[in-house]
């Protein structure tokens, strides 16, 4: 049974927070703010998380996806706003990869 | 320490092929790629057929390297294409071809290699540029512009990646007798060589010597630099 992107992201975020000695405000989940206003991560932390999630997806699903996105700094559209928005973005990329075969 | 893993682009011929053999002989596990197959093999060398400007191919290559080698210690961005022509006679297709291979390809390989290097907290990236940049060589406008972009990329990436233990440097060869300059008129090469402090053609060994220096563990404090050969 493959872990869903949300679980991979939460696991990776947990590691990044521990590594950077950042205290989580509460249980990590869909609504946890990652980057931007009230986000837990600075730009270096975000880079670390995105790379860790890409590698976790590669290991779990056997496909390479690029979570790079030029809307990173957008308050409204950035896929890096919350755990939920990043999970949704990863799932969309995974669907695209599956459709391509 | 076990064998370092060295990724080299453009290994089918010329400098890339020389570098592949050079680092295999030094005990590295060398991973190379080119758009076509290679007609040679080497123990310790693995070849991938990949266009460096193809994002999916680049990602697939590094995913495979991660699976088989577990890491990347060194990346040498050697793949490059040139076209000798007056700017007014340069077709747009040639412009795209040069920018894709020289700039986009270098960027993609730096990005994907740096992700693996970051995990290990160590890495060395070396990009190949050319003396045609400081010499502002007429007749190679797009090639020179593309390599100037690689030089800027080197300088900025050096700063972005320093915190991850990754150095990024460049080497600028003088003309070397390879496929890249095969179609350049001899008179043009002679004129270019005469502008060097040491007026001779370069050799792949001259290039390897500079790269050896950048790859040394002791070179951890050297980043964002470009060393031009021949005293240019």
Shape of chain A: globular
- Quickly count the helices of chain A: 3
**Separate helix tally of chain B:** 6
State the oligomer: heterodimer
**Number of DSSP E strands of chain B:** 7
Give unreliable regions of chain B as ranges. Answer: none
| CATH architectural type of chain A | Orthogonal Bundle
Order of helices and strands of chain B: EHEEHEHEHEHHE
Identify low-pLDDT runs of chain A.
none
Please describe what this structure looks like.
The complex is a heterodimer of chains A (101) and B (232). With 101 residues, chain A is mostly helical. Chain A has a single domain (5-100), classed as Orthogonal Bundle (Non-ribosomal Peptide Synthetase Peptidyl Carrier Protein, Chain A). Helix content of chain A is 51%, strand content 0%. Chain A is built from three helices and no strands. In chain A, helix 1 crosses helix 3. Chain B has a single domain (5-231), classed as NAD(P)-binding Rossmann-like Domain (Rossmann fold, 3-Layer(aba) Sandwich), CATH 3.40.50. Chain B is built from six helices and seven strands. A seven-stranded parallel β-sheet of chain B has the order 3-2-1-4-5-6-7, sandwiched between helices. In chain B, helix 1 crosses helix 6 (204-215), helix 2 (55-69) runs parallel beside helix 3 (92-120) and helix 3 (92-120) packs parallel to helix 4. The longest helix of chain B has 29 residues, at 92-120. The radius of gyration of chain B is 17 Å and the shape is globular. Classes of the chains: A mainly alpha (101), B alpha/beta (232). Chain A binds chain B through residues 44, 47-48, 51, 54-55, 58, 64, 66, 68, and chain B through 55-56, 59-60, 62-63, 66, 111, 115, 118-119, 163.
